[in-house]
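step 4 of 6: structure.
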Amino acid sequence: MERVIVAHICCLRKVDPWHHWRWVAEKLGPEVAGRELDCTWRVLSLDAKHYLAWSHRQWALRALGGWEDELDYCHELLEADVFNNSAWNQRYYVITQSPLLGGLEAMRESEVSYTIKAILANPANESSWRYLKGLYKDDKESWISDPSVSSVCLNVLSRTDCFHGFALSTLLDLLCDGLRPTNKHRDSVRALANEEPYTNLANLVCTILGRVDPIRANYWAWRKSKITVAAM
Amino acid sequence: MSSTSSSQMGQLVADKHVRYILMAEKKKESLESVVMDHLRMNGAYWGLTTLDLLDKLGTVSEDEVVSWIMTCQHESGGFAGNTGHDPHILYTLSAVQILALFDKINILDVGKVSSYVAGLQNEDGSFSGDMWGEIDTRFSYIAICCLSLLKCLDKINVEKAVEYIVSCKNLDGGFGCTPGAESHAGQIFCCVGALAITGSLHHVDKDLLGWWLCERQTKTGGLNGRPEKLPDVCYSWWVLSSLIMIDRVHWIDKAKLAKFILDCQDLDNGGISDRPEDAVDIFHTYFGVAGLSLLEYPGVKAIDPAYALPVDVINRIIFTKNDC
């Protein structure tokens, strides 16, 4: 009932109602956690990327709790649309903020496995590749030494039926962060080259990126100019 | 409905857009006007700034606009979206920006307006939109931009304001509305703009954010606001101004973006839409022209990427003495 009254007042005042609902909910306490999550669920079922609804949902979890089912909820949304960047962001929010999980490092292995599955199903998904990198926040060593990261790049590069841009840029990041390339890496990349000269691997990756992602040619040219000896 | 141009780069039909804006101003009983009634102040800022960018500000009655603006001021010092509505930081900035266009900031009780804005800062450095307390980094930008135009930035705790904005920085280098919220081009503009105005851009990882921003360019040439969303002309402003402020604008394909904006014009009736073939509105007309300004399109005045006002207006303010 409070929500109806608040919505009516907000309509009259021509203001956005989300903050007012928070104001009311804070007065009512944690018993309304389920109700607030339910409310955002309804909005997100109509528009799964609704920015204010996600902001309200994050507030509700922080202020009122209800973390138990949140990871499952993210999974549900990603099953419906694996390209939903908001759901990937929320997943990251849950694994880093939930008091019920062990934090980023504890969740890393299972999340890497989850993300790789998503990447292999849709390699042209910017969100999943960014999420993968995010799992190694502040831990460059693990990022370059985890074989599953390197091998998902190789897997995608060996396919002929998909966009290679994100796999290439991830490999470029790995090389620039200190990954020692193997012959597998070199062969994989060379197979994509169109008679482009091989000076060093990172350099070749940038050249190919300039071709497969031409709208960002200037960016890839800049990346090429920044390659240090360590990445060769 | 907007019509597409030929496959070559189209032209900016500036005169048609001027006519569209002036006609919209007159249609007070139209459905669009009634629905937008409460944010008329924002609409006025979008329309008038566009006119100034096209060097046609002289076609409106300055006295009429300025007196209407003053009827929107609340006793607290803040401005409402229209006469008789409640004050909010959103409309307070628009009011100050419009007065800046007309070089009429001097009619304000600057102390009163700046106190209203400064009073909205919270202990953690964030800003609320109004007395009801909603927090969003948009309001951080609005407060900082507004107080900077009024030369009263020292009325707030700038260090804490910056600290709060930085707490909203995400792993991808972008910024959200609150800590942990998804990076969004509109929020990024607000955070980068606020950091630029306060001389705090060293908190931005320019290479990382620059890449996230240039990834907003889709195959159509248009820019979206988040991964996997549709391109929209308004991001021609938010993404582009952010890229310019961090000195990375050369990472997008400017020609393709300009063509996308021009393809969103209604070549017959004027106005610009969010994407080709959609209905036009004042909001997208402003962002389209502002985007073209940032792309240095001929015939459009230069716009300041942080203050979202013509550069000559900002220069005038910088060289004017002001007592806070």
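step 5 of 6: annotate
 - Strands of chain B lie at 272-273, 280-281.
 - Chain B touches chain A at residues 37-39, 81, 85-86, 88, 129, 132-134, 170-172, 176-178, 180-184, 210-211, 214-215, 217, 219, 221, 226-229, 250-253, 256 (CB under 8 Å).
step 6 of 6: archive
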